[in-house]
Amino acid sequence: MTMASYTRGVPEEELKQRLDTFQSVLGKAGMDAAIIVQKSDFFYFTGTAQQGWLYVPKEGQPLLMIFKEFDRAKIESPLERIVSLVSIKKIPKILDKLGYPRPQTLGMELDVLPVNLYFQYKSIFGSADIKDISMEIRMLRAVKSAYEVRMIRRAACFSDKLAAKVPELLEVGKTELTLAGEIEAYARSMGHQGIVRMRLWGSELFYGHLLSGAEAAVPSYLSSPTGGSGPSPATGQGAGHKKIGKNEPVLVDYVFALEGYLSDHARIFSIGPLPDQLLKAHDAMLEVQEIAKREGVPGVLAGDLYETMVAAATERGHADHFMGVGDRRIRFTGHGIGLELDEFPFIAKGQNLALGTGMVIALEPKVILPGKGVVGIENTFVVTESGLESLTTIREDVVVV
Q1: In the chain, N or C terminus with fewer CB closer than 10 Å?
Q2: Between vectors from CA 145 to CA 394 and to CA 184, what angle results, nearest 5°?
Q3: Among 26, 96, 28, 16, CA closest to 58
Q4: How far apart are CA 85 and CA 76, in angstroms?
Q5: Can you tell me whether residue 60 is helix, strand or coil?
Q6: Are 361 and 347 in contact (CB under 8 A)?
Q7: Are strands 105-108 and 129-132 parallel, antiparallel or unpaired?
Q8: Average pLDDT of the chain?
Q9: Which regions of the chain carry the CATH code 3.90.230.10?
């Protein structure tokens, strides 16, 4: 493969708008500059995922310093000022050489920056006061541009195509892992990037969760209403060695990751009809989703939307099994989505962030019934002036094969 095979993705004007807005945020926050190193933030502001450091002064031209791989970064990123840098310790020297004033206050992503690296930056920048800029970045990323909505809409189309493929592959006796592998191979053939990025420390996901029958109700460490036994204790979540049977719910809850942007999507399948209890619970979750779509207008608090969904599930008799079971059940019913699976806003208990036009969220009302399985729905929505528009549109009832 030659360097000519790599093409630029994010438009130059898109990146310029993001950086201009961020520089304004830096000024308002009283910071002289910021250094961006977290992978998703780095891509968001540069258009490349190569290894390096982005220095953003509150005024003037940003500086992209690349450790590896410099030639790729020059092709992938439209930023004007890109330099090769072999060591983090040389950052002050290159800033001096290029005429950047030494920052007295420096913003960094302290929500994710390892402590050892923090101390290294403290040593390198001497008397500079390093402050957390992560909240400002996450709030900026929470509202998507028209370009980002188009990218997520494309990913959502592939989510629908992936779900449409499942009935062709679903067979009695096939293990969850085998079915997952076949579905994931199909996703890759459509351009799925494989990597699903999450910001929360210790969180990880491989495509998503494909779970069947009672195994689907097995909880895990992941901040998710579903867990699954997984292939071994080393992973502790997702598809396992269980063989798929008749008349049991098969949950396909997958993220489609396309050119950086994500769509979150869940549908329920079965080989033969499901018991009435499960069908009724699934229908109730569709009703909860419809209520949330109606109430999810700009200005509503994320915490209030969560309470609305909990109340709707309770009214339908699912208070004890909505979004999990027991004291450790998940206290959210949706989340922001974009370059990462866990972006702002969180549709969660006590959240005071208001929905705004241009935010993109995934709503995932689910019922977890130990010993029986999981039913429910998940779709990705963009917040518009008139409410929530679903970007995923394939049928939502239980698909019986």
Answers
A1: N
A2: 40
A3: 26
A4: 17
A5: coil
A6: yes
A7: parallel
A8: 95
A9: 143-400
- DSSP letter assigned to residue 300: -
Distance CA 117, CA 108 (A): 11
SS3 381: strand
Per-residue pLDDT tens digits for 327-381: 888 999 999 999 999 999 999 999 999 999 999 999 999 999 999 999 999 999 9
Tell me yes or no: is domain 143-400 CATH 3.90.230.10. yes
Between CA 333 and CA 349 the distance in angstroms is 9
CA separation for the pair 160, 320 (Å, rounded) = 31
Distance CA 258, CA 133 (A): 27
If one counts every other C-beta atom within 10 angstroms of the C-beta of residue 202, the result is 8
Paired tokens of 86:
């072999």
Give CA angle at 70 (65, 76), nearest 5°: 95
Burial of 189 (0-12, 13-18, 19+ CB in 10 A): exposed
CA angle 343-344-350, nearest 5°? Answer: 130
Q: Positive or negative CA dihedral for 114, 198, 236, 280?
A: positive
Apex 223 CA angle, 219 and 224, nearest 5: 60
pLDDT digits (tens, 9 = 90+) for 12-47: 999 999 999 999 999 999 999 999 999 999 999 999
Neighbour-count burial for 348-377, b at 16+ CB within 10 Å, e otherwise = beebebbbeebbbbbbbbbbbbeebbbbbb
Rg (CA), the chain: 23
Query: How far apart are the C-alpha atoms of 195 and 146, rounded to whole Å?
Result: 24
Core vs surface per residue 257-274: b (16+ CB within 10 A) or e:
bbebbbbbbbbbbbbeeb
Q: Which CATH superfamily is domain 3-141 in?
A: Creatinase/prolidase N-terminal domain (3.40.350.10)
Residue 197 token pair: 């990025």
Residue 372: which of 277, 264, 255, 265 has the closest Cα?
A: 277
Distance CA 77, CA 43 (A): 9
Tell me which H or E stretch contains 41: helix 39-46
Q: Measure the CA–CA gap between 84 and 86, rounded to whole angstroms.
A: 7
Structural tokens at position 93: 């020297």
Q: Which residues have CB under 8 Å from 116's CB, separation 6+?
A: none
